[in-house]
Write a structure and sequence with these properties.
7-stranded antiparallel beta sheet, 32 helices, single chain, alpha+beta
Length: about 1050
């Protein structure tokens, strides 16, 4: 059949399909459809005859052509009648009614029994519309970011001038002026203080070995016939004992080698007049800490000497009567804690100057402790560590204009870039006329407080340089846990604390509803991790402020509506509206925070590269060739063993979570939903008890996983802690929302929703009150410790007739509270859990939003107050944004969408009385719709910021011009000495060290004079040059 004929038939079939939706008969006016009329019958027949004449089959027989024409005319006649009938029906069709009937069919199939209420739709649309308009106005015109580098908002001068006097904190007026300004402080026990309870306690080799970071010794057997190898009672250990008098080595025997690793340590005792049978192959990575190593050796000798008697008997039986090592070893004494402390102090005090650090030591006012103050101040040492560590230094703002670049300095996006320190860049910029002096302080931002002249390295970077060097030899945390150190901490700067207290760390800022923070100042002083935590905290204070006003208005409107409508109906009609508002707000807040985070990451020049991360001193592994350099031996741990350990620790956490969930279910069974005061107190005590228990377990589990780097340790710690806290904090409320109404006791008086709301706001109120109490108690403890020490000191000195000496600021800091990793995680965990309450239960209880805001504000201002006034300085750890916390918040958002759909189905009156199929379809449709809403939010307010792109472009431009100026070859060519032969075929330029480098420049004069005919061919030029070289 011809193609055009087939098209006509297809048209007829399609018209028949339309007839399904046309009502029979009718006289409606359908002129509005503007349908195209069919051509006359004769015209169609003529066209079909033309088609037939060009048919390839026409060449065959005339009979076949006639048959084709008759068939086409017959089909055309039939289709014409059908088309006319169909057109009449199309003219009478109602498209709106057709769509309505199709939707009704879908609703009857998938959502039977659902009858949307116009009142509910109207109330929901009104609340959502007003809320979206308010959020738009707030985030566009009221919200203020924390990107500014200046402190004008708080009236604090910027760091850019040389201070005339040292600024002090109000609490520091009674202390010694801060002449010593250390970067790191180590606190040791005073060797002459007699009242130390563990002074004469014996120390073991294992305790000392975990303190000192060193490479294990390896011995090779030189005379196999003269050595006896036997098993040791400890697992996987062996002893090599010889007939030579006094030779005993204990360790792990592998292919004729004795690897003296970890437990049980190594023992090597020999007589001076007899050569050893075992040859010492290599020792530790450094010869430092000689006194401390001697104590370790004495500890191992003493341990072997005081081993169980049956072990010595076995040794005598295996070695024979000629071996007398057991008798000699019995005379060895195990060293005491005092000897280990003294040796460590002496070794460290001698090694620190060799590493380029300035060291000062002084005694505490009560002579029970010694304070070793370490400072990186020597210019040569600073430059050496700068070149070694690759620290990024920020260029001064005034240098940008000197480079001939026009960037408005008052704009945040004009923040100058950071460069790695290179003295050649400074020297070349000075020669190029950009810098007035050959001084890095003219190029890089200068920080004051350490010295009047200023330093290009800020205090947090100086501390990390010292910390990295010390950690290559000594595990400070292990030394503290084993009692060899009293404490260690980064030293505070009184000048920086004064600025932070005025702009950030005071409770009077509680009424500042802008919630602005000097985030850049926090980053420079406390490090990226603390800065990102406080930036996130402050941002969500601003975001929750906008949502709190909506929640309060909705609650007030509901309270007023209760005068006319049943309270239960009012609560149900709010669920759908506020759930949509919460979902939109959550996505908008995440996108805005992502913008802030990207900007700060770019401003601080941070990447996810972990190559500069310091390995944890407690990491255990075997020395193996490094994948980066096969000549370098580094500690490595098998990947499968690490994965197995992580799996076991996670499994333990899951089992513990199941135990907590079972106890909470038992609590519900006991009280049968009667959530009175006794039930609430019992639940609170149970939550606190399990939290205390797991807080003791999680550091042990995470340490047992043997993480090499602090970042993976931190992420693993947070994941396990969050997993437990979700069960411990949320399970009771999930039970109230999901299970309570189906129990025998049923919902309490007022309904399950009212009971859930009451428990939620009471929980957040308790969180706020507990944080205030925690801050108050911590500050009181610090003050009481100082007062108690002063009281005892005055009491003793009064009897001797002496005056009480003043306490230095370095000593005062030792009394402050700790703010280490666990405290930081606990504080952040409280915020994330409070935010989770809003995302999960906010739709049924909008009143909890203001209480959650109170938790965030108290945490923000209280933690800042504690850090500045009563806490030791935190370690300036690096972190790429908020890290694992961002993943947790995104997970809570996705779970909250699903759970909000469940709350709408259960507590909203839209789906009341509908079958299960309708409710399940409603949840699915709600989740899909919210995904579409998130997509629209992403399109309207994406997570990528244009300010970040501008900052990147401006910094790239400045960095490019700096490098061009610093590597300008034309300027170096101009420095050629006048005595050089200008006519020679080789010109030269002088390098930074004064030497000349040859640069080929053949046929200079010919090119200069335009004598192009004298330019030879390549073959001639090569031959000529070869002849010159031979000559």
């Amino acid at each position: 059949m011809k193609p055009r004929v087939m098209l006509c038939l297809l048209h007829v079939v399609l018209v028949d399909a339309v007839n399904f939706h046309l009502p029979p008969g009718g006289t409606e006016d359908v002129s509005q459809f503007n349908l195209r009329k069919l051509p006359p019958r004769g015209e169609i027949v003529a066209k079909l005859e033309n088609v037939a004449t060009i048919d390839p089959d026409a060449a065959r027989t005339e009979e076949a052509n006639q048959s084709t024409k008759e068939l086409a005319q017959q089909k055309l006649a039939e289709s014409e009648d059908q088309v006319q009938e169909t057109l009449e029906k199309v003219k009478r069709v109602d498209l709106t009614d057709m769509v309505r009937r199709d939707m009704q069919m879908l609703r009857d199939v998938f959502m039977p029994g659902l009858e949307p209420s116009p009142k509910i739709i109207g109330v929901t649309s009104t609340i959502v519309g007003i809320s979206m308009a308010w959020l738009l106005v707030y985030f566009l015109y009221i919200y203020r970011h924390d990107r500014c580098e200046h402190l004008d908002h708080w009236g604090v001068p910027d760091e850019g001038t040389n201070p005339t006097s040292e600024e002090q904190m109000p609490e520091e007026t009674d202390i010694v002026p801060n002449d010593v300004k250390p970067d790191l402080i180590l606190v040791f026990h005073h060797p002459n203080y007699k009242d130390q309870p563990d002074r004469d306690k014996e120390v073991t080799w294992a305790e000392l070995h975990k303190t000192l970071v060193c490479e294990v010794s390896t011995w090779r057997i030189r005379d196999v016939l003269g050595a006896v190898v036997r098993s040791h009672p400890n697992a996987d250990a062996a002893e090599i004992c010889t007939k030579q008098e006094g030779d005993v080595v204990r360790g792990h025997l592998v292919d004729g080698w004795v690897a003296l690793a970890e437990e049980p340590g190594y023992v090597a005792t020999r007589s001076d007049n007899i050569g050893p049978v075992l040859e010492h192959m290599h020792g530790s990575t450094s010869e430092a800490f000689g006194s401390f190593r001697s104590v370790m050796k004495a500890a191992t000798d003493g341990e072997f000497a005081h081993s169980p008697l049956q072990h010595f008997r076995r040794a005598r039986q295996s070695l024979g009567s000629n071996f007398t090592a057991v008798d000699e070893l019995a005379e060895h004494q195990i060293p005491t804690t005092l000897a280990a402390r003294t040796a460590l102090l002496q070794d460290l005090y001698l090694e620190l100057p060799r590493w380029g650090f300035d060291v000062t030591i002084f005694s505490s006012i009560d002579d029970d402790e010694l304070y070793v103050c370490i400072t990186l101040g020597n210019p040569v040492a600073v430059e050496s560590y700068l070149l070694r560590s690759g620290v990024m230094l920020q260029i001064r703002q005034d240098v940008v204009s000197k480079l001939g670049i026009s960037q408005p300095p008052e704009e945040v996006v004009s923040s100058p870039p950071m460069l790695r320190y290179d003295p050649r860049i400074v020297k070349n910029l000075h020669k190029a006329g950009v810098l007035e002096r050959d001084d890095p302080r003219d190029l890089f931002k200068t920080h004051y407080g350490k010295s009047k002249e200023g330093c290009i390295v800020k205090g947090s970077d100086r501390f990390m340089m010292i910390f990295r060097q010390v950690c290559t030899h000594l595990d400070l945390d292990a030394a503290k846990s084993k009692g060899l150190l009293v404490d260690w901490y980064p030293a505070h700067s009184q000048r920086w604390l004064s600025k932070l207290s005025k702009s950030w760390g005071k409770f009077s800022l509680m009424t500042d509803l802008t919630f602005l923070q000097p985030v850049n100042l926090i980053h420079d002083y406390f490090g990226a991790r603390v800065a990102f935590i406080f930036a996130w905290n402050g941002f969500y204070c601003k975001a929750l402020f906008a949502l709190s006003l909506l929640a309060i208005i909705i609650e007030l409107a509901g309270w007023i509506a209760r005068s006319y409508i049943d309270a239960v109906i009012v609560q149900k009609r709010v669920v759908l509206a506020f759930s949509i508002v919460t979902v939109v707000w959550a996505r908008l807040a995440v996108n805005m925070w992502t913008r802030e985070q990207q900007f700060f990451l770019k401003m601080w020049e941070m990447t996810e590269d972990s190559s500069h991360e310091v390995p944890r001193p407690s990491f255990q592994g075997e020395k193996q060739p490094s994948p980066a350099d096969l000549n370098l031996m580094v500690k490595q741990y098998p990947a499968h063993s690490a994965a197995a350990r992580r799996f076991c620790s996670t499994l333990f956490t899951l089992v513990f979570c199941c135990l907590v969930a079972a106890c909470i279910i038992l609590w519900f069974q006991i009280f049968q939903g009667n959530l009175d005061l006794a039930a609430s107190v019992c639940l609170s005590v149970m939550i606190v008890f399990f939290q205390l228990v797991y807080n003791l377990l999680v550091p042990v589990l995470t340490e047992w996983e043997n993480h090499e780097y602090q970042s993976t340790y931190y992420d693993s710690y947070v994941c396990k802690q969050f997993m437990f806290e979700c069960v411990n904090r949320y399970s009771a409320f999930f039970f109230l929302a999901v299970k309570q109404r189906w129990t025998e006791a049923g919902c309490p008086h007022g309904g399950c929703m009212a009971s859930l709301k009451k428990q939620l706001w009471m929980t957040l109120l308790i969180l706020s009150a507990s944080r205030i109490a925690q801050i108050f108690v911590a500050s009181i403890i610090v003050r009481l410790k100082i007062m108690w020490e002063d009281y005892n000191l005055k009491k003793g000195l009064k009897q001797e007739g002496k005056e009480t000496p003043k306490r230095s600021f370095a000593e005062l800091q030792s009394k402050f509270a700790e703010t280490r990793l666990q405290e930081q995680i606990d504080n952040m965990m409280q915020l994330v859990l409070a935010l989770g309450f809003i995302l999960l239960f906010g739709p049924v209880a909008p009143i909890i939003v203001p209480f959650c805001l109170a938790v965030f504000v108290i945490q923000l201002r209280g933690s800042a107050y504690m850090l500045v006034r009563f806490s030791k300085r935190t370690l300036p750890r690096q972190q790429f944004g908020i890290g694992i916390w961002g993943t947790i918040v995104n997970m809570l958002m996705h779970v909250s969408v699903l759970f909000s759909g469940f709350l709408i189905i259960v507590y909203g009156d839209t789906f009341a009385g509908t079958p299960l199929l309708t409710k399940m379809a409603g949840i699915i449709i709600y989740v899909l719709c919210m995904q579409v809403v998130w997509l629209l939010v992403d399109l309207a307010y994406p997570a990528q910021s244009s300010a970040t792109k501008i900052l990147q472009a401006r910094r790239d431009r400045v960095r490019k011009v700096v490098l061009e100026k610093a590597t300008d070859l034309s300027a170096k060519m101009a420095e050629v000495d006048e005595d050089e032969d200008d006519c020679s075929p080789c010109s030269a330029f002088r390098t930074d060290d004064g030497k000349f480098l040859s640069v080929n420049a053949d046929l200079v004069e010919e090119v200069k004079q335009g004598e192009w005919d004298k330019i030879p061919h390549m073959q001639d030029a090569v031959s000529s040059r070869s002849g010159v070289n031979k000559h």
